[in-house]
Amino acid sequence: MKIGLFIPCYVDQFYPKVGIATYELLQKLGCDVSFPMKQTCCGQPMANSGYEHLTKGCDANFVANFAEFDYIVCPSGSCVLHVKEHLHDEKNEALATKIRKSVFELTEFITDILKVESIDGHFPHKVGLHQSCHGQRGLKLSQMSELNAPFFSKPEQLLAKMSGINLVSLNRKDECCGFGGTFCVTEEAISVKMGKDRIKDHEAHQVEYITGFDMSCLMHMEGILRREQSPIKTIHIAEILNSSTVKIEIK
C-alpha cells in the first residue's frame, strides 16, 4: 500500500522529530511511505476561528498532494478529524470524498488498518497518556469515561505492551488540556488554568513523561511545564513507539 505522510504545519516547524519518528515507524511496519513536499496547512486554524470559507486553497492543495495514495497517515488527531469532516474541492469533489475516507491518525492506522496488536519497543519510564479531545470524541480512538461502556484506548493498547514502560492510570483519563486550537489565544486565562489542572493529575502520579497523539496538546502543556520549571517532559507517542522497534505482532 502507498502511504502519504501528512505532517501538520506546527509539527513541521517546531517538532520535526515527531514527523521523522512517524515516517520511520511506518517504514518499520512495512509501509511504502512518501512525504508530499508541497503540502501545507490543512486549514484547521481558519475553520476553528469561523473562516472555513477561506480554506478553499488549503483544500485544493491537500487534494492535489494526496490524490495518489491508498492511505494518508498523520500524527495528529485534530488535523485528521478536520480533513475527515471538512475537506472539499469544487473541481474534484469525488476525489476529495475518497481522501476524506482514506486519512487516518497514526495509532488508528496501526491498530485498525495494519492490524498490529503490539510493538516490541523499550521505554523504561513512568508515563501519563493524554487523550486529546478531537481524537477521543471525534475519531473514537478511546472510550469516553462518561459512557457506561467497556473502556478501550488504541494508543494505550500499543503503549501498554512495550517493555519497561510504567503507564499510569490517571484520575481523569479524558479531561481536556485547554488548548483547543485558537481557543488558547482568544481565551488565554481559561486555557492556561485548564492546562495546569490537567498537569496536576500527571504530577500527582509522579510521571516522567506526558505523551499523546496530538502534539498541539502536548505543546500547550509543555509551555506550562517549562514556565513552572517542572522536570516532567512531553513526548509524542510516535517517538515512544519508534524508540526501539524490533518485533511486530499481527492480529
Secondary structure: elements and pairs:
Layout: E1 2-5, H1 9-14, H2 16-28, E2 32-34, H3 44-48, H4 56-66, E3 71-74, H5 77-86, H6 93-102, E4 103-105, H7 106-113, E5 116-119, E6 126-130, H8 133-138, H9 154-160, E7 166-167, H10 183-186, H11 188-204, E8 209-212, H12 215-227, E9 233-236, H13 237-241, E10 248-250
Parallel strand pairs: 1-2, 1-3, 3-4, 6-7, 6-8, 8-9
Antiparallel strand pairs: 5-10
Helix pairs in contact: 11-12
Domain Cysteine-rich: 4-83, 127-221
Pfam families: CCG (PF02754)
Protein name: L-lactate dehydrogenase complex protein LldE
Structure description:
Strands 2-1-3-4 form a four-stranded parallel β-sheet, with helices on both faces. Strands 7-6-8-9 form a four-stranded parallel β-sheet, with helices on both faces. Strands 5-10 form a two-stranded antiparallel ribbon. It is globular and about 55 Å long. It has helices at 9-14, 16-28, 44-48, 56-66, 77-86, 93-102, 106-113, 133-138, 154-160, 183-186, 188-204, 215-227, 237-241, and strands at 2-5, 32-34, 71-74, 103-105, 116-119, 126-130, 166-167, 209-212, 233-236, 248-250. With 251 residues, it is of the alpha/beta class. α11 (188-204) crosses α12. Residues 246-251 have low confidence and may be disordered.
